[in-house]
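As promised in the previous annual report, we have extended the structural survey to additional targets. Below is the entry for Pseudouridine synthase.
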Amino acid sequence: MSARMLPVPDGLDGMRVDAGLAKLLGLSRTAVAELAAAGDVLLDGRPAGKSDRLSAGGLLEVTLPEPGGEQRVEPVAVEGMRILHSDDDIVVLSKPVGVAVHPSPGWTGPTVVGGLAAAGVRVSTSGAAERQGVVHRLDAGTTGVMVVAKSEHAYTVLKRAFKERTVDKGYHAVVQGHPDPMRGTIDAPIDRHPRHDYKFAVVATGRPSVTHYEVVEAFRAASLAQIKLETGRTHQIRVHFSAMRHPCVGDLTYGADPVLARKLGLTRQWLHAHTLGFAHPADGRWVEFSADYPDDLAHALELLRAE
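The corresponding structure token record, generated without further manual editing, is:
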């Protein structure tokens, strides 16, 4: 077993223990409820029940089981996951919110690889057993377009393409305020947050991270930005815009305004992997795919435009 100590951020003030801790750790609410029932969740030194309320500045102590062995892929259909393209080498899909790309310790929710297995899609056998065919990832809380390799050749070619940064990754994000300049590049290294290991931060000794952006629409309190990633660090867009004091709307973990999030009906960051372009592994021709905004992000955008 391993213990983790987590301060309760302001954005989770008043939230239930199961919901808040699930957000902090990337676990399902069911998994957190099981930890609480076993007495493995303490809030300010006292055992916390799943329905207890969090207070900003409080201290959570969570005892987690050590990661087990190989994670199994369970073929479970994923509601809302759409296949945009499929051929002998690749399958391109639109990932819904709340879905991890592959199984991992502590995650009991749906996964992309499980959804593909349930749909009868055979993927490459390259890679670890729980993430065969996976050549890149999206956070569970981020929606949008992604590609999975179906052939061994495609796996090798696409892994190299992502590593060598020849893939065109286009995101849309609604960020708070109005970035100045309206078009620019954020070049700032990223690593684990020095105090809160559940998130990341701009750190001088971090890994090089480069984000290109352009504001394409401005609203009274926010801006819609088109983003191209040169690197692909965990939480890169969220961290970079938070460091600019323009966090993604709804991203309470990285300092977003909870009042604005509630007004727009958002329970996660307004961030969407909109386009993905790459050289097709079969013949090298350039292909590009796009995924429409999911309902929650589209609705929030409508509300901003109506102001």
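The longest helix spans residues 152-163. The chain has a mean pLDDT of 91. These points will be discussed at the next consortium meeting with the crystallography subgroup.
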